[in-house]
Amino acid sequence: MAGLILRQIAKTFGETRVLRGISLDIADGEFVSLVGPSGCGKSTLLRIIAGLEAQSSGEVLIGGEDVTGVRASDRNLSMVFQSYALYPHLTVGENIAVPLRMRQLTAAQRLPVIGSLMPGARARGREIAGAVSEAARTLDIDGLLERKPGQLSGGQRQRVALGRALVREPAAFLLDEPLSNLDAKLRVHTRAEIAELHRQLRATFVYVTHDQVEAMTMSDRIAVMMGGEILQCAAPGVVYDDPEDLRVAEFIGSPKINLLPADVGDGGRLSVMGHPLDLAVPSGARGVRIGLRPEALVVADAGAPLVGRVVHFENLGSDLFAQVAVPGLEDRVVLRASPRMRSSLRLDATVALSFDPAAALVFDGAGKRLRDLRRPAANRHREAVL
Amino acid sequence: MTREWWKHLVLILGALIVIAPFYTMVSYSFKSPGEIDRGEGGFFGRQELMVDEKCVKLRDPNRDDIAAASARFPGMDDNAIRKALASEAEADCSMRPAVYNYSQAFTQAPLLRYLANGVIVTLSIFALQVVVALPAAYALAKLRFWGREAVFGLVLFCLLIPVHAVALPLYIGLAKLGLTNTYAALVVPWTISVFGIFLMRQFFLTVPDDLIDAGRMDGMSEFAIVWRIMLPTAIPALLAFAIFSVVAHWNDYFWPRIVVTGNRDLFTPPLGLREFKGGADGSMFGPMMASATVIVTPLIVAFLLAQRRFIEGITLSGMK
Amino acid sequence: MTATDTILSPQQLSAADPARRQRRTAWMLTAPALALMVLILLAPVAIAAVLSFTNYSLGNFGFDWVGVENYDKLLTRSTYAKMFTATFTYVLTVTPISVGLGLGAALLINSLTRLRDLYKTIYFLPVMATLIAMSIAWEFMLHPTIGVVNQTLAKGCGTWVETLWPWLAMHCAEGMPLWLGNRRYAIWVVCFVGIWQGFGFNMVLYLAGLTSVHRELYHAAEIDGARSGWERFRLVTWPALGPTTVFVVTISSIRSFQVFDTIEAFYPIGAGPGKSAYVMMFAIFEKGVEQNLIGIGSAITMMFLGFVLMITLIQRWLVERKVHYG
């Protein structure tokens, strides 16, 4: 097992720049998710780590060793593919054994029929069989070893693919959207299992997904990728609560973060919908937007900054999301409330919404997070008066 | 590209061998007998004027010709007129080898008639195959009836029997009915395409039942459903099948060889070519290759224009 | 069956009647096909089976039962021994080589980044072309004196090629081979034309088979440590092409059994020097149609059908066995 280091990885396909200089350190035993919308380059990055594709520039280090130019089969990595990529003509047991047979048996020993007569083949064969049944037991598929992949359900195939990855001890596990072909229920279940497997193996995992929930629930760190760059790489909580970039804030979180355009007044004081806030930004900021998570909004009395009409409810049982149309805002504002508040939030009712300025995430016109926020002096005065 | 050069080398060598007979065929169809004999003249030959001896011989002037021509050559004696006429004939009968070969191809044998026969036979075979196979395929795919499994089993069994293999008993039957040397003999054995039934059935299985039920709700009879709903949806599959069928029967030589004997009016192109070959001496190699070119060209041109469809059609049998 | 009927019993209309009507139309729709299947395919097989035990000739009123005499002739006379030799030589040569070349060409073409379609088109041309016309073209190319093959070989005479290739040296001394007239070469030349004509078809089927191989499987194989191209071929490509191979081998061998055009084009009478290219289809034609020996022709027909049936049954058995592929 080993850590991975990526240094300034760039990749261009003809004219298109798919990756624009990615640097990332993944510690030994860490679970890092690469998450982003399709086409952001996350799969390409994984395939470059695997050695299935060559980077245009930059280097990949596995366990401190530069593996640029080393072919995939020599990098000692395991990979689980989106389509599982099981060999259809081999049984489950044979599929899991392939990585061991390819590495531990000589070409002669692999020959059909004659191979088993070669010196040393028997003993190796037994070792491999032992490793296969152990991997199968770990994944609870020991009953399926004689079946062909065509006879398995999607979930079972997924486990076989995992089994093939963990039958040997690779430097790291690479997983390319391994859950995307499963149904919703199985996905939640397998999610937990993979996370447990990671804890049990204490191995390095690099996990590619477009599903932020998967990334949030399983990883030690999430690398949010967009347009061939890593926008932010941090622990799930940090990415959610403290995004560096507007695009990260928008991508992570469901329902999506509410974005309100803010005006910058005297001394950098922000106001929303003509309603001054207790927030000021360094002067000169333009096109400022305020991001508010649905749970940051609270129903308030009249006089709150946002007033609108409730147009739609989504009751998830544990949570209640209300969509509020605020005149003057293009997008509806989404508010999370507890189902108990259902009675006070009637459809078509007019509600006033306010929020704690401390919970507001402020972004500049380029989408960068503004952290240097102050409370305006005038405001403090008014607060004192109130 | 750098690592691919050896692959290209191998493939180009293969391509040369594949193309060689086509090259020879077309090249010979342009050349004069002398050039063919000596193996010279490149691809097109030198296209020097050549004299068609047969044509000259045909116009060998007799006494009447000389008498008739005497007005044109005043003051000449008969011998001089004969010479003048002969040289006239020679001038009229000389032409470029390419023109000679192709005109011979069409005049030595009724090549146009053969081509027309080819078109008639292949098109009637295809039309009848569709008329027979389509309703059966529909019934096997979409109707529930007692005996359906048995009928389909029979279809699968008949797939095992190549028509060429039962040519002899078919020939006996047609001979007994006095049908040899007729268009019917050329067409009838091919009217049933078990493969067509099988293929169309597989295709119809993928057509949603709702479409048929909608047709029934609109008051269509089952026959109307076959021709007004199933036929249009099956156009892509039918097109592929058409190519499969037309190519096979345009090129077929064995069956016409058996049932058409002597009657040139019924010759299909391959039979015509064989006839040509049977009577050909060295001087006719050019015209023979010209008619071979004429026979091969239609399908090749169609193939080059619609390669994907052709490959799909010819390899249809691979989609089982 | 009248309008009042349907009005009176709507339940009947919805349940029983449509089913019965459907059954009737179904039989009407299948009847022509069924009749033709019986008349054109099944009855002839039966007729051939019966006639193969007789000495029937067209134009005769009656015939005599001769028992297994016809089959006995097939198995004992030297002509028919030649027939089986020629047929099996052809089938066992053309099938593996045209399948192998088809696979090789498909793999090569599939691995290219450019000119793929060009090669594909060229290699497919012979499949489309009228075989008898192309056979005549080959005949010209193999002509002992004016043919391009011998002319090309003759260019090697007196050069270093001759020293490396004893066969050529021999022919430089003794004169170039009569490809079609020489008993040693005749059947192989016929085989060659068969391979030339057929391998493009196999190539296209293999190319179609290759597109269905999932690309991720190759990546998985690489990750799993299949380092050489051969290992990946053994682990991924070859098993994935299994069904294609079964099919391609079947159809190639059935087509090879049916070879006729080439032989008639090369040898209008006699099927080659010393009957060395006397294949079954030619024998059926010669005995049954030309010589009006229907009994023996029918016996050959039955044997022929037996071989084709056997090949197809083997194919179906293989397909059944591998039903869980993919």
CATH topology of the largest domain in chain A: Rossmann fold
Instruction: Measure the end-to-end span of chain A.
Output: 61 Å
Structural class call of chain C reads mainly alpha
Poorly predicted sequence stretches spanning 5 or more consecutive residues of chain C: 1-8
Number of helices of chain A: 10
C-alpha-based Rg of chain C, rounded: 27 Å
Q: How does the overall form of chain A come out from the CA principal axes?
A: elongated
Taking the alpha carbons of the first and last residues of chain C, their distance comes to 51 Å
> What are the secondary-structure elements of chain C, in order, as H or E?
HHHHHHHHHHHHHHHHH
Structural class computed from helices and strand pairing of chain A: alpha+beta
- Can you write the helix and strand succession of chain A as a string? EEEHEEEHHHHEHEHEEHHEEEEEEEEEEH
**Biggest interface between chains:** B-C, 97 and 88 residues
What share of residues are in beta strands of chain C?
under 5%
The second-level CATH architecture of the domain at 69-142 and 179-321 in chain C is: Orthogonal Bundle
How many helical stretches of chain C? Answer: 17
Give the strand line-up of the largest sheet of chain A: 6-7-8-3-9-10
- Main beta sheet of chain A: strand number and arrangement? 6 strands, mixed
Query: Roughly how much helix do the residues of chain A carry, as a percent range?
Result: 25-40%
Please report the total strand number of chain A as a whole number.
20
Commentary on this structure:
The complex is a heterotrimer of chains A (386), B (320) and C (326). Chain A folds into two domains: 4-246, 3-Layer(aba) Sandwich (Rossmann fold), CATH 3.40.50; 256-385, OB fold (Dihydrolipoamide Acetyltransferase, E2P). Chain A has ten helices and 20 strands. Chain A has helices spanning 42-50, 92-104, 107-110, 121-138, 154-166, 184-201, 212-218, 236-241, 246-251, 377-385, and strands at residues 4-13, 16-26, 31-35, 57-62, 65-66, 77-80, 172-176, 205-209, 221-226, 229-234, 258-264, 269-272, 275-280, 289-292, 297-300, 306-315, 320-325, 333-337, 350-355, 361-363. Chain A has a six-stranded mixed beta sheet, with helices on both faces. A five-stranded antiparallel beta sheet of chain A has the order 13-12-11-14-20. In chain A, strand 12 (269-272) and strand 13 form a beta hairpin. Chain A is elongated and about 85 Å long. Chain B is mainly α. Chain B has two domains: 2-108, no CATH class; 111-278, MetI-like fold (Orthogonal Bundle). Chain B contains 18 helices and two strands. In chain B, helix 6 (97-108) crosses helix 17 (285-305). Chain B is elongated, with a radius of gyration of 28 Å. Chain B starts with a helix and ends in a 6-residue tail after the last helix. Chain C has 326 residues and is mostly helical. Chain C has a domain at 69-142 and 179-321: MetI-like fold (Orthogonal Bundle), CATH 1.10.3720.10. Chains in contact: A-C, B-C. The interface between B and C is large, with 97 and 88 residues.
